[in-house]
Design goal:
The complex is a heterodimer.
Chain A (H helix, E strand, L loop, with lengths): L2 H22 L3 H21 L3 H26 L14 H21 L17 H9 L3 H22 L5 H4 L1
Chain B lengths: L2 H9 L7 H19 L7 H19 L9 E2 L4 E2 L2 H25 L7 H19 L3 H19 L6 H32 L14 H10 L4 H18 L8 H7 L2 H23 L9 H24 L4 H23 L4 H27 L15 H4 L1 H15 L5 H16 L2 H27 L22 H19 L2 H8 L2
Antiparallel strand pairs in B: 1-2
Helix pairs in contact in B: 2-3, 2-5, 3-4, 3-5, 4-5, 4-11, 4-14, 5-6, 5-11, 6-7, 6-11, 7-9, 7-10, 9-11, 10-11, 10-13, 11-13, 11-14, 12-13, 12-18, 13-14, 13-17, 13-18, 14-16, 14-17, 14-19, 14-20, 16-18, 16-19, 17-19
The chains are: A mainly alpha, B mainly alpha.
Chain lengths: ~170, ~500
């Protein structure tokens, strides 16, 4: 096992542990910080796969901006950890069924999901450098980029419609 | 990356090929500009601009029905122009036009910003049109997210009503879950099809033809079949098929009535356009028919039975029509299963979708007219005595519901007949039995609604009883009457003459 593979496995384990922490933590601030570390782990995985640009974008956008936003909102709402609904009320049959399905899925995935991978160090990831990525974005994938512009516009309008105070609505009526 | 390749890729972006979608985008922006420039007392013309824009785009589409791009790919393979794509474009434009007309009835009762509603409807419609023509998973996902995010906003649009907000939140959570599943599936397929150690691996694994080639070369790969199952689950969420129908009743009840219609008709149609492109006879997953056929067959049977049985006990008409919509989704999945072996099934699905559109909007039109200020409170009892107060509305309702139930000679009957004929030819006999059982059950609750409108008299609730009185009935405006009458007539006429759809059905 090369040092790259060992690091990759370590980062994968770290990501999984932190993802479990997001779900299991009762305190919302701790959960958000676990999410931050989970994203750092995923960024580490991307670096291991030579996708440096993706790793950088993930840290910049998700870890930097979005988790900070989550933390702001959590602090503004001042949620208490004990207000969480418990899952104990699920019927026993449902619990056994769900556990069985998940275990069966994971087992079959481990058993049959093996894929012979080529040497990752030899291949250059698509998300490795900014220049080819930008070329692709503005030639091949120009249409999706334009649609995303509209997506952001309606998302912004939605925020305004759903949260703004109605002022002067009588005029429109 | 050399400059010539870049120029070539840029030259393949044929913007005129998606002119209708661009028109919708421009009109949507125009609405916002008009809201800024016009004085508030002239704002009521803006919904007319939206409706006129949709109508104009629809006419333009019909005039230029066979553009030169039919059968070819543009935008470097992101979009593929087909006749089916043209049909779905027309379907989405028609339903968006009707949604805008219904929204004028419903939004009038609420102190809400109006213009944003029409803007979002237009953008969502354009996204649906692109979704139906997408030929690449990147395009599919971007269009699907635009459509879904627009619908999150529209569902929770009446934010002063807790039902609407609750519906929006539930739809957001369920939609995020389904998008996640869809993405997992896409990523699995991308990873497998791009693996250099497998035969027929591709550098563009998300492009439909490339992926289909890869799947044909590896017909029993475990990870690929896992990805396909995930993608089917994601699409099943959007069409509300069993076991992913859990969000349907609450979201349909809480959403504003025009948005419920949009969800029931256009969003479901978009899901089926995707399902046909993926699982149809020449679809991407056709090499995996051993996997998709049993899944879809079981899903169709369970969806038909669940939708109809659950709708039996409903008293809120929005929940009722939502659950009956689940059973219609089951019939359409039956058509998709049949289309894997019988070519006529594709035409049957499109005819069924149009018959469903016309009948649904007739019913939703009556519902929009009769609803009060609380849009989620529309009970079956509110309809009692409708035939005496307004024979016209009661007739339109009866025609719409009769068509949804599949009563001959209405359009819905012909739709069901064509789908069942296709299923019969494909040899799924036991599914036919379940479908027939579903039709019988559905007649019970559809006729319960008609019975309330025609044979029951309204008794105001006793003073001590907590039940609120029903909303006051107003006379039908001439424009609304014209619209509803046209929809009812179309439901009757399409039952006798199927026009271009009939030609499609006769194709070998």
């Amino acid at each position: 096992m090369t040092i790259g593979q060992i690091l990759f496995n370590l980062f994968a384990l770290f990501t999984l542990v932190m993802a479990a922490g997001v779900v299991l933590n009762k305190n919302a601030v701790n959960a958000a910080l676990c999410l931050l570390l989970c994203l750092v782990g995923v960024a580490g995985l991307f670096v291991g796969l030579n996708a440096y640009l993706l790793a950088f974008l993930l840290l910049l956008v998700y870890a930097g901006a979005i988790v900070a936003l989550f933390l702001f909102i959590v602090m503004l709402l001042d949620t208490r950890g004990d207000a969480r609904p418990t899952l104990n009320r699920l019927p026993l049959v449902a619990r056994i069924l769900a556990t069985g399905l998940i275990l069966g899925g994971v087992a079959s995935f481990l058993q049959r999901g093996r894929l012979v991978s080529p040497d990752i160090a030899g291949t250059v990831g698509v998300g490795a450098a900014l220049k080819p990525y930008a070329y692709q974005l503005f030639t091949t994938y120009l249409l999706p980029v334009q649609i995303l512009g509209f997506l952001l516009l309606i998302a912004m309008l939605g925020v305004i419609v759903l949260s703004k105070k109605f002022v002067g609505m009588e005029d429109i009526k | 990356m050399n400059l010539e390749a870049v120029k070539l890729a840029a030259a393949n972006n044929v913007w005129s090929a998606i002119f209708p979608e661009m028109m919708l985008g421009c009109i949507a922006l125009l609405l916002l500009v008009l809201e800024m420039l016009l004085p508030p007392k002239h704002h009521e013309v803006i919904p007319d601009v939206a409706a006129a824009g949709l109508f104009g785009t629809l006419i333009g589409l019909i005039i230029n029905w066979h553009p030169i791009w039919i059968g070819s790919e543009t935008f470097n393979g992101l979009i593929r122009h087909t006749e089916a794509g043209q049909v779905m474009r027309g379907f989405f434009l028609t339903s968006a036009l009707l949604v805008c007309l219904l929204a004028r009835l419903t939004l009038r009762r609420q102190a809400m910003p109006r213009i944003e509603f029409y803007h979002i409807v237009l953008v969502v419609t354009a996204a649906m049109m692109l979704l139906a023509q997408s030929n690449h998973f990147v395009m599919l996902f971007v269009a699907l997210e635009t459509l879904t995010i627009g619908l999150y906003i529209l569902v929770s649009y009446f934010r002063t009503s807790t039902a609407s907000l609750e519906a929006g939140l539930k739809y957001l959570l369920m939609g995020a879950l389904s998008s996640g599943m869809l993405l997992f599936g896409i990523v699995l397929l991308y990873g497998v099809a791009g693996n250099p150690t497998l035969p027929a691996q591709s550098t563009q694994p998300l492009h439909y033809p490339e992926l289909a080639r890869f799947l044909a070369a590896n017909p029993h790969h475990f990870l690929a079949s896992l990805g396909i199952v995930f993608i089917l689950a994601g699409v099943a969420f959007k069409i509300g098929a069993f076991p992913f129908q859990i969000w349907v009743p609450d979201v349909y009840q809480g959403a504003p009535t025009p948005v419920t219609a949009f969800l029931a008709v256009a969003s479901k149609g978009a899901g089926f356009a995707v399902l046909l492109a993926l699982c149809g006879a020449h679809g991407v997953f056709s090499a995996y028919a051993w996997l998709t056929t049993p899944i879809l067959t079981a899903m169709a049977a369970a969806t038909i039975l669940f939708g109809n049985i659950a709708a039996l006990t409903q008293h809120n008409v929005k929940r009722l029509i939502g659950l009956s919509g689940v059973s219609h989704a089951g019939f359409l999945i039956l058509g998709v299963v049949a289309s894997q072996t019988v070519p006529m099934a594709v035409g049957a699905i499109y005819f069924y979708l149009f018959a469903y559109l016309i009948a649904s909007f007739a019913v939703f039109g009556v519902m929009s007219h009769l609803a009060g200020a609380d849009d989620s409170d529309q009970e079956l009892e509110h309809y009692s005595g409708l035939a005496k107060d307004s024979p016209f509305l009661a007739t339109v309702l009866a025609v719409g519901l009769g068509s949804l139930a599949g009563i001959p000679p209405l359009a819905g009957f012909m739709g069901k007949l064509f789908v069942l004929m296709a299923a019969f030819q494909s040899g799924a006999r036991w599914l036919l039995a379940i479908a027939a059982l579903g039709v019988v059950i559905s007649i019970y609750y559809y006729f319960g609604w008609i019975k309330a409108a025609f044979f029951e008299t309204w008794t105001p609730p006793a003073e001590s009883g907590g039940a609120p009185a029903r909303p006051a009935r107003t006379s039908v405006a001439p424009s609304t009457g014209l619209l509803l009458g046209a929809l009812a007539l179309a439901s009757i006429a399409l039952g006798f003459y199927q026009g271009p759809w009939g030609e499609w059905l006769a194709r070998p």
